[in-house]
Amino acid sequence: MTTPAAAQPSAPPPTTTGTTTTGTLGVLQRDREVTPTELRRRAEWIRLETIRLVGIAGSGHYSSTFSAAELFAVLYYRVLQLAPADPAWPDRDRLLLGKGHAAVGLYPCLADLGFFPTDWLDSYTRLGSPLGDHPDMTKVPGVDFSSGSIGHNLSVGLGMALAARLSGRGYRTYVVLGDGELHEGQVYEAMMAASHFRLGNLVAVVDANGSCLDGPTSQVMNVEPIAGRFDAFGWRTVELDGHDVEALVTAFATLPPPTDDQPTCVVARTVKGMGVSFMESAEEWHLGFLGPADRERAEQEIRERLA
Q1: pTM higher than 0.90 for the full model?
Q2: 37: how many CB neighbours lie within 10 A of its CB?
Q3: Among 34, 38, 98, 136, which residue carries the largest CB count within 10 Å?
Q4: Under a CB-based contact definition with an 8 Å cutoff, are residues 63 and 78 in contact?
Q5: Which residues contact 44 (CB under 8 A, 6 or more apart)?
Q6: What is the CB neighbour count within 10 angstroms for residue 7?
Q7: Per 3-state DSSP, what percentage of the chain is helix, strand, and coil (rounded to 5)?
Q8: How many Cα atoms sit within 13 Å of 80 on the Cβ side?
């Protein structure tokens, strides 16, 4: 479909992919050579594409996606072992998006890496499009599990990590959770089981932006100390600034090998709405729509950092 002039996609900044070839299969290896500057620019591009796609949909989750922009950039352009030409490649690393409402920031990465044609983005949420507000594993190449019902993904990731052990494969399973998602009791059952089964190939990444749909997480149901809770269940924990790409790169680069017997939780302290000043820590932007003037303000602020 033709994209309106005002909604033309932002060209992604060039990135070193570190692609290698195994037979006819192009594999994006772990720990690819990407500079911190490139990763920061990727995160800003994700924010711009989020604004564009929400503009197509007419409503969307800006602020929850903005808080995870650096996480998406580092994971997809540096950390994960992937094969876009073969999304079901058995040895790929898995990523499950527990906070499925942030899929609007995930889709541009998948399209850019070659999992599906970039023009799919122009149909985001439109009738018949494979790209819905939440990711569907039966429709979107590169999505390892459907999400939207909060709280299930750490349990599913646990199953994938167990499957790797049983099949003798060395892939890692990453599960990106919102801190509001930690209100769900099923998450704690998965935390307990992961350490019991000694799954060092399982990595939980908590986008701890301090807020959920109903308000500040601490007021709705306090989940702090997040690292302390995972630690109490036998996990290795790392706490850092989730917008600091150098800290994220270091945390993921220094993970124990997948054969280790202790799962890892990375607690990424983030700001909801990060990157657009009038959205930062503002509850009303959890789900919303930018009018023309506010959209121009938001895009200009992001583009100034890309200049």
Answers
A1: yes
A2: 10
A3: 98
A4: no
A5: 69, 275, 302, 305, 306
A6: 12
A7: 45, 15, 45
A8: 27
Nearest to 251 by CA among 243, 269, 259, 239: 239
Beta bridge partners of 28: 19, 82
Tens place of pLDDT per residue across the chain (307 aa)? 333 334 567 777 755 444 443 334 589 999 999 999 999 999 999 999 999 999 999 999 999 999 999 999 999 999 999 999 999 999 999 999 999 999 999 999 999 999 999 999 999 999 999 999 999 999 999 999 999 889 999 999 999 999 999 999 999 999 999 999 999 999 999 999 999 999 999 999 999 999 988 889 999 999 999 999 999 999 999 999 999 999 999 999 999 999 999 999 999 999 999 999 999 987 788 889 999 999 999 999 999 999 9
Cis-peptide into 225, omega within 30 deg: yes
Helix (H) or strand (E) holding 113: helix 103-113
Q: How far apart are CA 176 and CA 265, in angstroms?
A: 10
